[in-house]
């Protein structure tokens, strides 16, 4: 049996990062407030996980203003999309291998 666990990406070990990436995979841009509310996180907790994904270049950050109010939004990069899909494929293989 192959060792599928070694194919899992450490960047996605956190359930929060899995949640962030899952949301970004099916949406074009998602703003900070929406992620925070959907995942029920504090500002600091979300910001630290966003920073980790941004460091890996799995997401991009867009800062803008809506009227006079600042807005921060996120989008998955092609590299992030490929890494997340590979991670999910490894999880599927791991589950299949356990049957």
Automatic annotation (TrEMBL):
The taxonomic lineage of its organism, from the top, reads: Bacteria, Pseudomonadati, Bacteroidota, Cytophagia, Cytophagales
Domain Winged helix DNA-binding positions: 16-95
Q: Which domain of life is it from?
A: Bacteria
| Descriptive protein name | Transcriptional regulator
Q: Which PANTHER family does the UniProt record give?
A: BSL7504 PROTEIN
């Amino acid at each position: 049996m192959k060792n599928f666990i070694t194919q899992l990406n450490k960047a996605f070990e956190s359930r929060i990062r899995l949640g962030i990436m899952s949301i970004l995979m099916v949406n074009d841009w998602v703003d900070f407030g929406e992620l925070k509310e959907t995942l029920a996180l504090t500002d600091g907790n979300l910001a630290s996980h966003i920073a980790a994904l941004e460091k890996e270049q799995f997401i991009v950050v867009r800062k803008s203003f809506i009227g006079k109010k600042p807005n921060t939004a996120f989008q998955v990069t092609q590299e992030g999309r490929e890494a997340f899909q590979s991670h999910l494929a490894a999880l599927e293989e791991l589950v299949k291998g356990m049957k």
